[in-house]
Amino acid sequence: MAKDFYLEIKHIDKTTGARYGILHTPHGEVEVPMFMPVGTEATVKCLSPEEVTSLGAGVILANTYHLHLHPTERIVAEAGGLHKFMNFHGPILTDSGGFQVFSLKSFRKITEEGVRFRNDFNGDEELFTPESVMKIEEELGADIIMSFDECIPYPVEYQYAKDSTERTLRWAERGLKAHVRDDQALFGIVQGGEFTDLREMCAQKLGAMDFPGYSIGGTSIGEPKDVCFKMVEDAVKYLPSGKPRYLMGVGSLDYILGGIERGVDMFDCVLPTRIARHGSLMTSSGRVNIKGAEYKDDFSPLDPECDCYACRNYTKAYLHHLQMRNEEFGKRLNSIHNLRFLIRIMEGARKAIQEDRFKEYEEEILAKYGDERGF
Q1: Rounded Cα gap, residues 340 and 343, in angstroms
Q2: What is the pLDDT of residues 6-54, one digit of tens each?
Q3: Average pLDDT of the chain to the nearest whole number
Q4: What is the mean pLDDT of residues 133-137?
Q5: In this structure, what are the phi and psi dihedrals at residue 281, rounded to the nearest 5 degrees?
């Protein structure tokens, strides 16, 4: 069991499965449900760790695959681990790099041993196994680390999903045996595609392995929303109730709130910062494309309901000007706003859960902001 890591569930909404709690980690306590900004290469693009903390973010997510390629886990370890390397004092989560490796469709080969692929930097052939990934993640030194799994594509034939899910379970067991650091919480990842029996089987077997936490993988990769939510339900139903649950790669309001309703505690996605850099901003009146000509002489704040640095100090006209001139400061302000927007939504969700009105809150938010995928 991971030292100094556990979920303290404080309240469950009386009308849904939404949970409010405190996640205890070696680098501090954070409230859930929460949204985790993505810092793929040990940085949330355009922002400093201090700025990310000031937005109310509890955990930053980094990517094992990318950090293995550059600067390498050896460099990070010599720096004293990710926390010292990137000067972030809160909890950090690293994924296993499995999604990135399996995305290299023409450059990877899956075997029972692991996955062979080519290094993007030098062209060398590499092999990721459950054991080697554990070693990389232990050297990186995050508080929360992920098992090595296969992200099953959508759609897929049942037999492929079954074979892949069973291999993911074998890999999970190998990774668990290889994991030796007791100051890291290793999460098992539930796969199974859209098939109820496979999700149930995977969740039950991972639960029996007694991981400190569990991720729900293979969602938000092109499947319809109702299929995604069914995948989540099929997993949550059979996962241990006292452990944290993490829905991977979800960043739109409808999917986040739908996940919370179904008992998920943790979410991450590159969406808010990625679209911010292109001038797409989440606001209380809907999405704003700040490149629009109508904002050229609009001297009002971006979002009068937002308390972020950008909204308190700058106008739509200024943000429009920065975006049109491709200024880095504009990308930074946009990123600050979008992250704070989602974190504020999570703050409201936590309050609503404690007051037993989460469903009402979810409906209010979706009616106000729209049910737009990707927003």
Answers
A1: 5
A2: 999 999 999 999 999 999 999 999 999 999 999 999 999 999 999 999 9
A3: 95
A4: 98
A5: -125, 135
> Mutual orientation of helices 196-209 and 225-236 as an angle, nearest 10°?
40
> d(Cα 6, Cα 244) in Å, to the nearest integer?
8
Query: Rounded to whole angstroms, how far apart are CA atoms 292 and 44?
Result: 26
CA-based torsion, 360, 252, 285, 342: positive or negative: positive
Catalytic-labelled residue, pool 13, 234, 254, 268? 268
Q: Is 7 exposed, middle or buried (0-12, 13-18, 19+ CB in 10 A)?
A: buried
Residues 6+ apart with CB under 8 A from 270: 38, 40, 251
pLDDT in tens, 347-370: 999 999 999 999 999 999 998 886
Nearest to 323 by CA among 294, 282, 290, 346: 290
Give the span between the Cα atoms of 312 and 315, in whole angstroms.
Answer: 9
- Distances from the Cα of 303 to the Cαs of 270, 308, 327, in angstroms? 21, 9, 21
pTM: 0.96
Cβ-contact 184, 193 below 8 angstroms: no
Sign of the CA dihedral running 58, 289, 368, 308: positive
* DSSP string computed for 268-325: E-SHHHHHHHTTEEEETTEEEETTSGGGTT--SBS-TT--SHHHHH-BHHHHHHHHHT
Respond yes or no: is residue 210 known to be catalytic: no
209's tokens:
């392995």
Q: Which residue has the tokens 């999604």?
A: 99
Catalytic residue, candidates 13, 95, 234, 303: 95
